[in-house]
């Protein structure tokens, strides 16, 4: 897990994410979420897990309200997130 978290931290830093920035992870209950949580923590970013029960406009509101610097999205949820955040 340490190696995965360090890899995520490196990727986040390379993407310009840093201390105080918010990192959202839209996934189901998956072990990969821990690498994102710990990776964000390593660089001082704030991990924001959206409510997994939210869909539609409620998910869009939560994503917009959190003002994330980076959003990780599970592949099968990508179109849903795009529709709610990109128009």
UniProtKB/TrEMBL annotation:
Residues 2-76 form the AMP-dependent synthetase/ligase domain. SUPFAM superfamilies: Acetyl-CoA synthetase-like. Keywords: Ligase. GO terms for molecular function: ligase activity. PANTHER family: LONG-CHAIN-FATTY-ACID--COA LIGASE (PTHR43767), NONRIBOSOMAL PEPTIDE SYNTHASE PES1 (EUROFUNG)-RELATED (PTHR43767:SF1). This is AMP-dependent synthetase and ligase. The lineage of its organism: Bacteria, Bacillati, Actinomycetota, Actinomycetes, Pseudonocardiales.
């Amino acid at each position: 897990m340490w190696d995965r978290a360090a890899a995520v931290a490196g990727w986040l830093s390379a993407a310009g994410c840093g201390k105080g920035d918010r990192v959202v992870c839209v996934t189901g209950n998956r072990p990969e979420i821990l690498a994102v949580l710990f990776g964000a923590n390593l660089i001082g970013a704030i991990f924001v897990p959206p409510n997994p029960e939210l869909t539609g406009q409620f998910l869009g509101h939560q994503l917009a309200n959190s003002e994330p610097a980076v959003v990780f999205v599970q592949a099968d949820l990508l179109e849903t997130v795009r529709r709610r955040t990109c128009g």
